[in-house]
Amino acid sequence: MKNNNQLISKSTIRFIDHSNDKLIFNVPNNALASFAIDDAIATTVGEKVAPVTVRIWVHDQTIVLGIPDSRLPYLERGLQYINDKGYHAVIRNSGGLAVLLDKNVLNMSLILPGDHHLSIHDGYHLMYYFIQELFKEDTNEIKAYEIKGSYCPGDYDLSINGTKFAGISQRRVRQGIAVQIYIDIAGSSFARASIVKDFYRISKQDEVTKHHYPEINPSVMGSINELFHKNYTVEQITSRIEQLFIDKGNELAPNRLLQHEQEIFNKRLEQMWKRNEKIAAFNP
């Protein structure tokens, strides 16, 4: 494969900021729509009718559940707890486990064609490299390894001195690859993790399950503001992401979605609705 710097430099990149948009294709811009639009974009990027695309998205008061979470033995009780907290629950169309989002958590999708021959490992490492570049003015201590006690733990948890502030996932659709990351920018990551901890406690109780669910320790999670002793906002980091792509020699294309993407989006959104039928009644 090409090195990481080559993969994010000297190309045309479509930059889409959905962080403040109320609608996507006249549909409410919630996490259901976000996962559907990433699938649509990954399809068109894979078909090479759209350029490499970076999409920024933010969803307040949302818990994103992985497919294994939908099999928790007392899921309904956990969802009621989430509802009582004022959170909206979504089951995403991929693996992984629960992640808590709010207005201080920035999500970025880097959507690439599959012809770079990126392995799953390569996709994760590309995003890891990008985040190291993004925050190199603040630190050179960002590491990637599983943080025990964090929510949605994995080999590409991003942390500083053992405190996790971001997690990376991947979604592969036909010939397109969406490498997705959430970054805790501000607010209390301890409070976010405490909610997820209680969600698992209530949803699993003392049942023995085939799938291993994390025993969450909120103290191993933090925001970049807590770790860097800064006061960054989501908007500031979004601008920094955009500038980094420019600094790498990229030309940023207009923020424009394609008609073909709307057609794919409609189908993918319907699939997401079907996946989420069982939990729809628990959302506020």
Report on the structure:
Helix 2 crosses helix 8 (259-275) and helix 3 (75-84) runs antiparallel to helix 5. The chain has one domain: BirA Bifunctional Protein, domain 2, CATH 3.30.930. A hairpin with a 2-residue loop joins strand 2 (23-24) and strand 3 (27-28). The strands form 3 sheets. It has an 8-stranded mixed β-sheet with strand order 9-10-11-12-8-4-1-13. Strands 6-5-7 form a 3-stranded mixed β-sheet, covered by helices on one side. The chain has helices at residues 4-7, 31-46, 75-84, 120-134, 189-204, 224-228, 234-247, 259-275; strands at residues 12-17, 23-24, 27-28, 52-57, 62-65, 88-91, 99-101, 105-113, 142-144, 157-160, 163-173, 176-184, 251-253. The mean pLDDT is 94. By secondary structure, the protein is α+β, with helices and mostly antiparallel strands.
Class, according to the CATH hierarchy?
A: Alpha Beta
Q: Main sheet, how many strands, which sense, barrel?
A: 8 strands, mixed
* CATH fold node name: BirA Bifunctional Protein, domain 2
Strand order of the largest sheet: 9-10-11-12-8-4-1-13
Gist of the model:
It holds the Pfam family LplA-B_cat. The protein has 284 residues and is an alpha+beta fold.
